[in-house]
Amino acid sequence: MSITHLRRNVEGYPDCDTIQITFEFEDGIQTEQHPNPGQQYYGLKTAAFVPQNHEGRKVYRLLEVAFQHKLLFTVATTSTGEERVTFSDIPLKTEESGGYDSFSYPDPKYLKTVTKLLKAKGIK
C-alpha cells in the first residue's frame, strides 16, 4: 500500500486535492489463512481515491488500519473459476469521476458511509 498526493480533485470536492492509495498484490500460493490453501491465486493492482480534506485524511488513516488488519481485500473464486485477490465488503472509490456507481465519485455520502462500515468492523 502506498499513497500519492494528486494536484487535482475528485468529482464533488472541487476545493481540495486528492489522495491516491495504491494497492498491489503479486500472484501467489494460498496459505492456511486463505480459502483454498496450496492453490495459486492471481494478484491485483488497483488504486482508491479520497479527497485531501479533513474527512478524507481521516478516512485514509482508517483505510490504512483496515488494510493492515487484512479487511479490504480477500482471495475469492471468480465466476470463471479463477482464484484472485478481490475487494472485500468495504467499498473503495477506484474512479475519481464518472458517475454515481459504487466505485466512482461524485458520492457525497461515501466518506460517512465508509467510516461507519469500518467502525462496525472495529476500525475507528
Walk me through this protein's architecture.
With 124 residues, the protein is α+β, with helices and mostly antiparallel strands. It has a single domain (2-120), classed as Enolase-like, domain 1, CATH 3.30.390. The chain is 21% helix and 28% strand. It has two helices and seven strands. It has helices spanning 54-68, 110-120; strands at residues 2-6, 18-25, 28-29, 40-41, 44-51, 73-77, 83-87. Helix 1 runs parallel beside helix 2. The longest helix is centred in the middle third of the chain and has 15 residues, at 54-68. The radius of gyration is 15 Å and the shape is elongated. InterPro entries: Deltex_C (IPR039396), Deltex_C_sf (IPR039399), Deltex_fam (IPR039398).
Short description:
The chain is α+β, with helices and mostly antiparallel strands and 124 residues long. The chain has helices at residues 54-68, 110-120, and strands at 2-6, 18-25, 28-29, 40-41, 44-51, 73-77, 83-87.
